[in-house]
């Protein structure tokens, strides 16, 4: 649907949600194409970091079409896949009918304090209107001793690699996006990645929300960073 409204960097929740409604059907395919398949490795490393165990309660926020949630459920965990886009959830329910999808807002979670063993968010926090509020909400709903894992685009650490990556994201990705069903959504993707804090600054945001022992690991040279912390 080329007539879609794209979200701006103000991340108005209505615009973000309808933008994802519109891209839902092709979302996972575009992820594979735009990342050259690297997303599969990033997802495997994220699952290892979360370490889902049978019977554990795991909250996957901004879960979209449930691709990440399905992996955690496969390990035997009881997963709640929350997202505010009705379109992404509809696509997710079609693909993974066994998953528990909940429509809700990451900034105002519909759960009691101390409910989950782990809370995680993959490529979602960057799109949330107030990520600090979401980090505080995640802290509230996790049990004491529970864990946080955030996978998000970040900044390549090596200067030469960073330049190459910038060239790819500024010149090549927009060209690739032109062939997608929703080019404006992919302009938003590039701009939102550029605006997102680098590894260390984001680690400070996590700590400021009350989380302890914040650490991170770079994936693909820092194109993506995986931050971990505990309550
Ligand atoms: C890039 S997708 C990531 C989907 C999935 N986590 C994955 O790994 O593929 C971002 C998702 O964040 C959701 N989102 C953004 N802001 C949200 C909020 N405040 N509450 C819940 N979901 C939100 C969008 O609807 C969208 O599905």
TrEMBL record:
Provide the GO MF annotations for this entry.
2-methoxy-6-polyprenyl-1,4-benzoquinol methyltransferase activity; demethylmenaquinone methyltransferase activity
Q: Which PROSITE patterns match?
A: SAM_MT_UBIE, UBIE_2
Return the Pfam families for the record.
Ubie_methyltran (PF01209)
Record-linked Gene3D superfamilies: Vaccinia Virus protein VP39 (3.40.50.150)
- EC number, UniProt record: 2.1.1.163
Q: Name one GO biological process term.
A: methylation
> What SUPFAM superfamilies does the annotation carry?
S-adenosyl-L-methionine-dependent methyltransferases
Q: In which pathway does it act?
A: Quinol/quinone metabolism; menaquinone biosynthesis; menaquinol from 1,4-dihydroxy-2-naphthoate: step 2/2
Family named by the database record? Belongs to the class I-like SAM-binding methyltransferase superfamily. MenG/UbiE family.
What name has this protein been given in UniProt? Demethylmenaquinone methyltransferase
Q: Which organism is it from?
A: Arcanobacterium wilhelmae
Its taxonomic placement starts with: Bacteria, Bacillati, Actinomycetota, Actinomycetes, Actinomycetales
């Amino acid at each position: 649907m080329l007539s879609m409204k794209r979200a701006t960097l103000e991340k108005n929740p209505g615009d973000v949600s309808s933008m994802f409604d519109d891209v839902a059907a092709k979302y996972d395919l575009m992820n594979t194409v735009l990342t050259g398949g690297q997303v599969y490795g990033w997802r495997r490393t994220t699952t290892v970091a979360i370490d889902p165990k049978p019977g554990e309660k795991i909250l996957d926020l901004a879960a979209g079409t449930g691709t990440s949630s399905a992996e955690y459920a496969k390990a035997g965990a009881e997963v709640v896949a929350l997202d505010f886009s009705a379109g992404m959830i509809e696509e997710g329910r079609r693909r993974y009918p066994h998953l528990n999808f909940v429509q809700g807002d990451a900034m105002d979670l519909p759960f009691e304090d101390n409910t989950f063993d782990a809370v995680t968010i993959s490529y979602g926090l960057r799109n949330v209107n107030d990520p600090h509020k979401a980090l505080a909400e995640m802290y509230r709903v996790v049990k004491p001793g529970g864990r946080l894992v955030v996978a998000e685009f970040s900044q390549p650490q090596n200067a030469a690699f960073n330049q190459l990556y910038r060239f790819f994201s500024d010149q090549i990705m927009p060209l690739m996006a032109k062939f997608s069903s929703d080019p404006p959504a992919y302009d938003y993707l590039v701009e939102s990645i550029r605006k997102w804090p680098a590894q260390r600054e984001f680690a400070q945001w996590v700590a400021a929300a009350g989380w302890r022992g914040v650490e991170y690991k770079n994936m693909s040279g820092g194109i993506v960073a995986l931050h971990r912390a505990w309550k």
